[in-house]
Design a protein that fits this description.
Elements (H helix, E strand, L loop, with lengths): L36 E5 L1 H8 L8 E4 L5 H10 L2 E4 L2 H9 L11 H8 L10 E7 L7 H14 E12 L7 E10 L2 E10 L7 H7 L5 E6 L4 E7 L1
Helix pairs in contact: 3-4
C-alpha cells in the first residue's frame, strides 16, 4: 500500500463511542499551573529501545520539533532519525477560526496530508509520536493511525502519549528530549485543547490493527502507549 494520498483512510470514527470533547467549564476555570520542564523515567521508551538491541542503521521518525538531543542520541546508537513537525503543521493547516471544525475541510486536509507521514509503506522501524495524536479530530486521527501502521515495518514500534485527566479542558503540550534509553525531559510549551478524552477502551479500539498495544501509566497524568505492528 502506497503512503501517497493517505486521505483514503479519512472518514473513520474514533475508538470509543462514549469518547467526547471536554465540556467547557460551567464556572470560571482556575488559573492554569505555570508551564514547566521536568525529567522522568519512561518505561515505554525503555522498551522501545530494547527492540533495537543488536541492530544498527534503523530509521526512526520523530513527530516532535527537531532537537539536537534526540538527533545526537540516535546517532550514537548508529540509527537515523527523521523529523515531521506534526503539531506545527497541524496549526499551519487548520489554524484560524475553529481548529477542530477546520479539520473537516477537505482542502485543508489535503494540504496537511501532503506535508506529514509521507513515507513509503514498511519503510520505518519506529515512530516517536509523543503527544501529537491527541490534537487530531476523530476521523483524521483514524486516518493518521492507519498511515502510521502502513509506514512501519512488520515488528516496528510507535510510542505515543495521552493525558489521562478527563476533567482538563486544556493540557500542557510538551517537547520531548531523550536523556537516556529510559529517561526523557519534558518541556511544556503551551496549553492546548485535546480533541477528546482518550480512555483505555477508546485507545484499544483506535490501535486495533496493531499486533500489540501496551499501556504505561505515569505519576504525571500521562498515559504512554507502545504499539507494535
Amino acid at each position: 500500500m502506497s503512503s501517497k494520498g493517505w486521505n483514503r483512510f479519512f472518514g473513520g470514527q474514533s475508538g470509543d463511542p462514549s469518547a467526547r470533547p471536554p465540556e467547557p467549564a460551567s464556572v470560571p476555570p482556575l488559573e492554569k499551573p505555570e508551564l514547566r520542564e521536568f525529567t522522568r523515567t519512561s518505561s515505554a521508551l525503555d522498551q522501545f529501545f530494547q527492540s533495537f538491541h543488536g541492530q544498527v542503521g534503523l530509521m526512526v521518525l520523530d513527530l516532535g520539533v527537531s532537537n539536537q538531543a534526540n538527533t545526537d542520541f540516535f546517532n550514537l546508537l548508529g540509527h537515523r532519525l527523521r523529523y515531521d513537525n506534526f503539531v506545527s503543521t497541524l496549526d499551519e493547516s487548520f489554524g484560524g477560526g475553529d481548529f477542530y471544525a477546520n479539520q473537516d475541510d477537505d482542502s485543508r486536509i489535503d494540504a496537511f496530508q501532503a506535508k506529514v507521514l509521507n513515507f513509503d509503506d514498511d519503510s520505518l522501524d519506529g515512530v516517536l509520536a509523543w503527544d501529537s495524536l491527541q490534537y487530531l479530530s476523530p476521523a483524521l486521527l483514524e486516518g493518521a493511525v492507519s498511515q502510521l501502521h502502513s509506514i512501519l515495518h512488520k515488528g516496528g514500534q510507535a510510542l505515543t502519549v495521552f493525558h489521562t485527566d478527563e476533567k482538563l479542558v486544556e493540557v500542557p503540550a510538551y517537547s520531548y528530549r531523550i536523556q537516556d534509553r529510559n529517561r526523557v525531559k519534558l518541556i511544556a510549551r503551551e496549553y492546548r485543547k485535546p480533541s477528546q478524552y482518550f480512555s483505555t477502551r477508546s485507545l484499544e479500539k483506535l490501535f486495533r490493527n496493531f499486533e500489540q498495544v501496551k499501556f504505561f501509566l505515569t505519576q504525571d497524568s500521562l498515559r504512554e502507549v507502545l504499539l507494535r505492528k
